[in-house]
Amino acid sequence: MRPAPCGAGGARHLSGMDGDALTLDLAPAINSIPAAQWDAVAGSANPFVSHAFLAALEDGRATGGDTGWEAMHLVLRDADGRLVGAMPHYLKHHSYGEYIFDHSWANAFMRAGGDYYPKMLSAVPFTPATGPRFLVGMCRPIAPRSCATRWQTGWCSIWTGCSCHPRISISCRKPI
Questions:
Q1: pTM of the model
Q2: What is the pLDDT, as a whole number, of residue 21?
Q3: Sequence-ordered list of residues with C-beta below 8 angstroms from that of 48, at least 6 positions apart, any chain
Q4: pLDDT of 13-26, one tens digit each?
Q5: Sign of the torsion formed by the C-alpha atoms of 98, 100, 102 and 104
Q6: How far is CA 28 from CA 46, 64, 68, 107, in A?
Q7: What distance in Å separates the CA atoms of residue 60 and residue 77, rounded to the nearest whole number?
Q8: Which of 50, 8, 59, 1 is nearest to 29 (CA)?
């Protein structure tokens, strides 16, 4: 069973550090998120998490379809619906194109009777470059490390029946 995408009743509600309501949702494609909103939280320091780069992967069919990279980007919105956090995120049906070779883990898990795939992965496809994946801009004060823990718990509860593989590198941009 596939979780409901943004606006389709699949949202999970979380509490912010200051008591504000936050909504965690899944976006089935990067183009379902306005580029200006995504880039406001992604910043410009890392081109691999930009809306344009992720859209090029999806539009060029490097992801989606039968590629094994099914877009399920995570979006975190405040009570007013403003995007305050995002994460490039995929439901993976294999371990190719990640530059993290976990085939032995997958084989061991399957020999033990588990289903390793599909798995949820926070990563940028076919990109060995390091950089932030938990994207929080200057839109509002947010306690990213604490929020990341609640976020992981929240998004793993959205989809059951798969393994979760968060590779979160948090980057907070502060106003100059």
A1: 0.73
A2: 75
A3: 124, 127, 129, 131
A4: 555 545 567 788 88
A5: positive
A6: 22, 10, 14, 28
A7: 28
A8: 59
